[in-house]
Amino acid sequence: MTALRTGDWEDARRPDLARIENDQPGERLQKIWETGPGLKGWFSDVDHKAIGKRYIVTAFLFLILGGLEALVMRVQLGAPNQRLLSPEQYNQLFTMHGISMIFLYASPILTGFSNYLWPLLLGSRDMAFPRLNALSYWIYLASGLFIYAGFVTGHGADDGWFNYVPYASKPYNPGVNMDIYALGLILLGLSTTVGAANFIVTFLRTRAPGMSVNRVPILIWGTLTASVANLLAVPSVSLAFFLLWMDRQFGTHFYDAGKGQPLLWQHLFWMFGHPWVYAIVLPAMGMVSDGLPTFCRRPLVGYTPVALATVSTMALGFGVWVHHMFATGLPNLPLAFFSGASLIITVPSAVAVFAWVATIWTGRPVITTAFLFFASMIVLFVIGGVSGVMTASVPVDWQLTDTYFVVGHLHYVLIGINVFPVVGAIYYWFPKMTGRLMNEALGRWNFWIMFIGFNVGFLPMHTLGLLGMPRRIYTYPAGMGWSVQNLIVSLGSAMFATGVFLTLINVWISRKGGERAGPNPWGAPTLEWSVPSPPPPYNFAVIPLIASRHPLWEAQLDESPARSSLNEGLLLDHGRETIGTSMLDGEPNLILEMPGDSAAPFILTLGLTLMFIGGVLRLWWLAGLGGAICAVALVDWFWPRRVHAGAETSNG
Amino acid sequence: MTAPANLGLARWPLGYLATSGPRADPVTALMWGLIGLSLLVITIITISVVWGVIARRSAISPGALEGAPLTSGGAGMMWIYVGMPLTVVALVGSLFWTMAALASVDRPAAVPRLTIDVTGRQWWWEVHYPGPGPEQGFETANEIHIPVGEPVLIRLHGGDVIHSFWVPALSGKTDTIPGRENLAWLQANRAGVYRGQCTEYCGLQHAHMAAFVIAQPRDEFDAWRNNQLKTGVPAATPVTAMGEATFVDRCGKCHAVEGTAANGRGAPNLTHLMTRQTLAAGVLDNNIDNLSGWISDPQAQKPGANMPITFLSGPQLRAVVAYLETLR
Amino acid sequence: MADAVYEPRSLPVGSREYNATGWLGALCLIATEGSLFAYLLFSYAYFAVQHGKAWLPDAHPSLRYSLPGTIILVTSSATAWWSERSLKRGDRAQHLAALTGTIVLGLVFLILQLFEWKSKHFTLSSSAYGSLFFTITGFHMLHVIVGVISLSTVLGWSLAGYFSPRRHLHLTISSAYWHFVDVVWLAVFFTFYITPYVW
Fold first, then answer.
1. Collapsing DSSP states into helix, strand and coil, what is residue A590?
2. Is residue C123 helix, strand or coil?
3. C or N terminus of chain C, fewer CB within 10 Å?
């Protein structure tokens, strides 16, 4: 748990500057920062790059599972009155599809990319809390396995990811499936929350000197905003599920119709749920805002409006949740308010769209696979956005809601604003992560098959909705006018899935066989492109000093005489160290001691998982045992350093 | 067994591209307006992106990006300065139109003369027509008759889980929530059969929970209503007598037929079963074959439905069906 | 090449009080736990609005245990603050005494809460009010227990000499958490015990 030390501990010191010459100071830092070998090292790794990659791989596994669930459903729905699936099987599939995609893929994939990239973008050697980082990954993995354990043993949740009561309550769902979902999601919420805190503190304190808040990449704004929102919104859904578990197991009366309030569930769920859907797109929008300009060979048009739009979208996102409840019979006054807010929230989103279009028009675009994914996202975003405007209008939503129109809308916003940027991000940052380029020719096939397949598969859902097809139905009769379009949707979805599969193929063949990439194959402007590909464990041999938003473009753009210092900067090698800076201006004011490898996050996760398993099975001794393990792990984690109490005077 | 034939409905029975009543029509106009606006926006942005990429494309190959020239400045902000006011105008316009549509469908032009209680149940619609006194009310299921051209008040009750009552040609949807009464109203401009469906996921057979609103001229509606109030049953033949006895014994705990000892409230009221056009909330046309098949094995057509396989013998089944055929 | 002239001054090493990243992490924890209680009290308000005044099992809930408990908890915040201040001024004995006092007062509060629970004529499952009452006060008690454990651990570390007047982040964070638990109690107390009087 203690970092490698080269001398007595100092209460304070003047940090050394150094210049990068050949292998130094890299070689020395390598020894300080590299993870321990073998299984022990693997379980106690706290390197943000390793954690980021684990997140990305795990999230893609859940994407594949969720996708397979969807494909089976689409076979069932490809023609009327099919009997491939029983109603219960279908219901579990559509529930697990939603859970897998929205909870186990959409947020973790962005956390994964952000985890990998943030310290590299900010000029830091790691996130603010490396062990907390590892913890958030292990809990995520545990909760995903927890929920899927229910599904594969025949106890899958079957009330949709939104899990409305009373159908989710004990009288209608007596099995253990809902308890697994409820507790599994509370467990996942812990991962999200600690991850959010990590991003917020990293943003506030570990930026490189000179990186004031108006110089950070837009991805930082996106993930930061999502993190603040998650910190405040996740407790709502955790509470909702906890109260449901109480109703089911302890006879409380939160949601039952007799003494409780079924609508309370919807309020608590959507007060979380709506901010959540912005949290799973804003970081991806940030990736587009950072990646598109590279290929347009110019800085983003309207950096400040886009940054402000990111924050205001999220803020407004807290004030629209009732638009998921327009049909519940609430009085007109609140409905009108939420309808208005839901229309207004389009405004900041539009700012980003215009900024991207302007960047293309005032730049000189170079077409690469990554560029195609980022640029096409703009179109898909707008399609999803305008269908959202339609559903924001209360009386129109009274027709549209709970039909396939909404299914079309949500897939355009989720696939268009999350999946497409993510695949673009893979093509864009894969060279940085692996030192190899992905195959461009295969990439073009990848893009067009995904793009065409997606639109063929999901555009007809809007018309199906207008023709009255409800959602969440396991089959439909002939003679409704839906049959041909459903077949098209099924075929298009299969094509889209093939396209996603091509992404995986390209990743697989490129990781060992791709063309080698240097530090900056795209000629990009931000800090991560100034370090080797893949980066060494310590990221930066010296902490850079930042003078603009585009450190690597300063000389060429020559917008001002200021130049960042990338080859000479703070050395910070008295152990695992990085610089702590002031919140707004990025002035150094602290030398941060970073933890080395630690098994505490993994042990704590084990304790938590045992606690939650005990809860589901009502084995209170097991829950207690889990809690005790958690307590031990936490005390170990926070054990203070006696040396801190030792030196009372500074060492100059 | 056959699924219901097209009951004289439009090509898209649940579609609402065109609607037929004052609670839906103003909304349909707004919807088409928003569809038009949406298509316009999509077209503008798509052309902007595609044309921009093609027109501004650089000749540099992806492999030569490192060190490739950069540009900056330009009038890019104009896109935001022009685009944002247009966006705001479009949104504010949509907001005003939304409020106007909301106001115009809030209540009918005239006070409804007819009130109907609808309760959502897994997986059928319990329908109650109240009268001035308890003797003048009656129960039916899944099929709602209303007089043409008059507003009708619908009181929506939650029975078990949340369902949503939706007849798209006539109105937007409103949920039935246990513990809560929601109000909706309908009015049909033209006589005809309007299909509805449950649109809030409610469990295994959410997919098979249709409703039918049949709008009739006033005199036909009154005739129908008077018939529903009757409880007399024609003289029994030996077969129908055996059928009635079997029915009361085996089905009467769930189903009710007014005027007999069958008084269950958990399942659809069957007093005038033969006046309905479909069975099992729209799953089957109402004819003898379907009725027999349904009674002997409801799980085959609607797996998970609350009606169990009845295990009636051949003669018993024929007798019960013959009895039910008299319930007109 | 560096054009900027950069003269780093002497910087503290490691977590020094409010400069530390751990302090901000603790604030994030307080923010998220605070919103949890906000959602719990929202649920209370939702029920109150939907059901009206008749929903209360007692028109005026007794303050017999809750008022003394409130006073004790507020006092314990004062002792927690005092403990930190003494440590900063170098008075170790006062610091340890005040910290011990805080823990004891926290335990007394828990005991009073248990008496309050026993005095109620409704249960967790007898009514929605009962469900809300025991769940919300139960969540709060859970936070008090975590606070007591945390302060006790800090006491142990302090006795073992791990802290100094300038470096005692664990105490600072545990104290802040304790103050938070106190503020939450004031909100819970106000909601359950005061609002029925003014409703």
1. strand
2. coil
3. N
Rounded-to-integer distance, Cα A616 and Cα A150, Å: 10
Are C125 and A253 in contact (CB < 8 Å)? Answer: yes
Partners of chain B (3+ Cβ pairs below 8 A): A
Q: Is residue A487 part of a domain?
A: yes
Interval A14-36 mean pLDDT: 91
Chain B residue with Cα closest to A403: B199
Q: Is the pLDDT of residue A496 over 80?
A: yes
Question: Using the beta-carbon criterion (under 8 Å), do A252 and C9 form an inter-chain contact?
Answer: no
Quote the pLDDT of residue B135: 75
Tens of pLDDT along B75-113? 999 999 999 999 999 999 999 999 999 999 999 999 999
Token pair listed for C49: 């609005």
The whole-chain average pLDDT of chain A stands at 95
pLDDT of residue A25: 85
Global ipTM = 0.96
pLDDT, position A644:
62
Residue A3 lies in a domain: no
Asked if A521's CB is within 8 angstroms of B65's CB, the reply is yes
* Nearest CB to A354 within list B80, B158, B173: B80
Domain assignment present for residue A254? The answer is: no
Q: The domain containing residue A487 runs over which residues?
A: 296-515
Q: Does residue A332 belong to any structural domain of this protein? A: yes
What CA–CA distance (Å, rounded) separates C40 from C53? 19
Report yes or no: C3 at the A interface, CB cutoff 8 Å.
yes
Chains near A (3 or more Cβ pairs under 8 Å): B, C
* Residue B195 zone, left/alpha/beta (φ > 0; ψ -120 to 50; rest): beta
Share of chain B above pLDDT 70, in %: 97
Please give, rounded to a whole number of angstroms, the shortest distance from the CA of C74 to a CA of chain A.
Answer: 26
CB contact under 8 Å between C131 and A547, yes or no, is no
- Hey, is the C-beta of C94 within 8 angstroms of any chain A C-beta? no
Count Cβ–Cβ pairs < 8 Å, chain A vs chain C: 185
Listed residue (B176, B126, B117, B119) closest to A329, CA to CA: B176
**Would you say B102 and B219 are in contact if contact means Cβ atoms under 8 Å apart?**
no
Domain boundaries, chain B: 114-217, 238-324
Q: Would you call A347 and B91 a contact, using CB atoms and an 8 Å cutoff?
A: yes
Number of domains in chain A: 1
pLDDT bin (cut points 50, 70, 90) of residue B4 is very low
- A404, pLDDT greater than 60: yes
**CATH for B114-217, among 3.40.50.150, 3.40.50.300, 2.60.40.420, 2.30.42.10?**
2.60.40.420
Closest-CA residue of B relative to A469 is B14
The domain that holds A493 is classified in CATH as 1.20.210.10
- In chain B, which residues have their Cβ closer than 8 Å to the Cβ of A160? 201
Q: What average pLDDT does range A182-210 have in this prediction? A: 98
> Minimal Cα distance from B30: which residue of A?
A396
Q: Which of A458-467, C49-58, C66-75 has the lowest mean pLDDT?
A: C49-58
Residue B106 structure tokens: 């809030």
Which ranges of A12-129 does DSSP label H, i.e. alpha helix?
Answer: 26-33, 38-44, 48-77, 87-98, 107-122
Same fold, B114-217 and B238-324: yes
pLDDT at residue A628 greater than cutoff 70: yes
CB of C52 less than 8 A from some CB of A = no
What's the CA gap between A528 and A521, in Å, rounded? 12
Taking the domains of chain C in order of start, what are their residue ranges? 19-52+64-198
CB A633 within 8 A of CB A600: yes
Superfamily of domain B238-324: Cupredoxins -  blue copper proteins (2.60.40.420)
Asked whether the predicted pLDDT for residue C76 surpasses 60, the reply is: yes
**C19-52+64-198 placed in CATH 3.40.50.300:** no
pLDDT exceeds cutoff 90 at A108: yes
